[in-house]
Amino acid sequence: MSVEAKIFRFLKIVGVGFKARTEAQGRQLFLKLGYSHEVQLDVPPAVRAFCFKPNVICCTGIDKQRVHQFAATVRSCKPPEVYKGKGIMYIDEVVKKKQGKKSK
């Protein structure tokens, strides 16, 4: 088995106009999340971030705790919303939607 037995954590971005991109070989992550500015995150040294599509982010590395911590940091930028289901969520995460108000 190779030394780089990596841990992966996938996140998906749901929402119109929400996008992600990486720069500097996975060292910086830029997120467009409907704010007036682009959110910029510096990726920790033991972790790499990749964007396969504009709405799928892959956090990878050797240290499980650091990978999961960075994935949680990315998710906290726009947690999934319970009424419309928009936001950043883990690939395997299920968001239960709430009903909302009923109009007369």
UniProtKB/TrEMBL annotation:
GO terms (molecular function) for this protein are: rRNA binding; structural constituent of ribosome
Q: Which GO terms describe its biological process?
A: translation
Keywords attached to this Swiss-Prot or TrEMBL record, sorted alphabetically, are:
Ribonucleoprotein, Ribosomal protein
Residue ranges annotated for the Large ribosomal subunit protein uL6 alpha-beta domain, each copy included: 20-90
| InterPro entries named among the record's database cross-references | Ribosomal_uL6-like, Ribosomal_uL6-like_a/b-dom_sf, Ribosomal_uL6_a/b-dom, Ribosomal_uL6_bac-type, Ribosomal_uL6_CS
GO cellular component terms, A-Z: ribonucleoprotein complex; ribosome
Q: Which Pfam families did the record assign? A: Ribosomal_L6
Enumerate the transmembrane spans: none
Family matches, as PANTHER family: 60S/50S RIBOSOMAL PROTEIN L6/L9, RIBOSOMAL PROTEIN L6-RELATED
Q: Identify its protein family.
A: Belongs to the universal ribosomal protein uL6 family.
The name on file for this protein is Large ribosomal subunit protein uL6 alpha-beta domain-containing protein
Lineage at the top is: Eukaryota, Viridiplantae, Streptophyta, Embryophyta, Tracheophyta
